[in-house]
Protein 1
Amino acid sequence: MALERLGASLHEALRKLFRAAVVDEAAVKELIRDVQRALLQADVNVQLVLDISKRIEERALKEKVPPGISRREHVIKVVYEELTRFLGDKPVPLKVEPGKRKVLMLVGIQGSGKTTAAAKLARYFQKRGLKPALICTDTYRPGAFEQLQQLASRINVPVYGDPKSKDPVKIALEGLKQFSDKDIIIVDTAGRHKEEQELIREMKMLEEKIKPDEVMLVIDGTIGQQALVQAKAFNEATSIGSILVTKLDGSARGGGALSAVAATGAPIKFISTGEKIEDIEPFVPSRFVGRLLGMGDIEALVEKVREAEVKVPEKKAKAILSGKFTLTDMYEQFEAMRKMGPFQKILKMLPGMSYNVPEEMLEQAEDKLEKWRVIIQSMTPEERENPKILNASRIRRVARGSGTSEKDVKELLKQYVMMRKMLKTLRRKKHLPFFGKGLPFDVG
């Protein structure tokens, strides 16, 4: 993602500090210059950059170093804390409870990614065992309801709208009536420009009539510092309770957008970091900055693993523990890993790994994983359960059926043997830490 450029620049600034022979005033000032450059390139407001720099310098040079850590570690801690502070410091979660219906109204400029954000939020809550529903009140944009309907069908979430009606209030009220049994109802409104008074009036009327529990402003992360102007304009028209920043994967100005929005005082509750419907996450400033600086985000990684975990029946688990590991089991592990998302995103959550693995290597690993999945799919159930029967003619047939080469099939079988051996070793040690969470393996 484009924010990686900001992260890579900040990470490099810290690496220079690590390499410095001594951490004196000159080293601290060089670090601050590097941080300033990185933030300005990400379109962070100049005055804000100066304020952050001043606080880092004062704390790094004047604060007493706590016992047990070096000055170098203290300076890095100061940078981490100050970057976290300017992005909002403490996270503000969106609380939704089963059986207690919550109505969330989304507002924003046309083109900010609001409709997609509505579906992403629905998916986010659905994955946490809640019952979401969507309502489309956009009577202006052609195809608005169809777009939301298409997104909702992909995640099996109910949606209400009436393309024939021109009354958004009536649509919203009817939708709320239909979805009385849902936990969270996300109302997608018409995209508007702050100068369009008619649309502003409509937004106010909608809020007045449907009385949402929260109004969430959707901001396009590619607009940089302009996010501040936009957020203030909307806040004057309606009571903005929180903000969702989209398209952080597509712009080098994402840091500017985040910092500008944080300056409004309205909490950023979610960020969207990719095109997939799962690419949304709660905004936790400390964890976000940790990833930017290459410190990782173990909490997010644990959450990803929990979401992707495969439910293995007890009988099957015992069979694997006794050494009966098949290609079907291997396929299920690949599926679990795939659910966790791209390798690049997973590595960003591991301390020290964010910027150390070349992107081409990760892409090759993902391609290989996908190729192996297709190969296993091309096998007969008998071959998957008993790979020993895969002789030369069967390997040729599987290669043809999967559109791969015999060499690829043999490579998969070699990997399978390695995993089987590893399982046996772990079984002897009575320790299977990764079972059900995506087994580690060499994709090189």
Note: The domain at 3-86 is CATH 1.20.120.140 (Four Helix Bundle (Hemerythrin (Met), subunit A)).
Protein 2
Amino acid sequence: MIHTRNPFRFLSTACMLAVLAGSAHAQLLAPSEAAVPAGPAAAAQTSRPGSPSSVQVNNEQISYATGVVTVRNFAKNKIEIDVEAVIRGMRDALAGNKSLAMNDKEIRTAMNALQVELRRMDKLNKREAADVNNKRGLAFQAEYKQKPGVKALGNGILYREIKPGTGPTPTELDHVVVNYRGALTDGTEFDATHADQPATLRLVQGIMGWREALKRMPQGATWEIVIPHPLAYGERGVPGTIGPNETLVFQVELLDIKRS
């Protein structure tokens, strides 16, 4: 909902975008302290039809998109904006500094106030999301335990054997060659390998739940593994991909073990 009264009423769109864009980043790496391997999916992005490099846009489209993104970002952060004041600020800035209704000091003060408000709202949103995700994760785990064949590892990790394995199990210092799919409890996939392009990962660099499960997994096996948030990415999550306190669901096929 966009309202017409707001203490930040003389901010230009360019300034607002600069503030709001600062928090938008997320790229998954390995299932480690940062995230899970992006693998082939990341490389494929460079040639995907419709990518920015293959689409020509004109100035009107860019300008319109800037307005849409600005309003959506403010709405997402529950910040009210005065649309008429935004337009007036843009026109005044284009006309030159002498036309501005605020001096540089006043603009900096307003921008600082906006940054403080954005940080406050970000913390509030994260707390709310963490609580929702925690409750949803606990409910998912309770339901998952009732499925046939599900076993617990004693540390909150649950798993179900899809295909048995007869080989050895890895140690934390080993590298493992795996096919895997990582998803949230609602089924949203955040990363996966392809069957013909498995990932080779050093087990010790994985998140705790990943390490604990794979250390018990024999080579050749395929497991579905449910990892509670304290053994995954906890309250920090992975910005833009995995929320705070998210329970994760992996399907992992352990193809090979490379001893260190």
Note: The first strand starts at residue 150 and ends at 152.
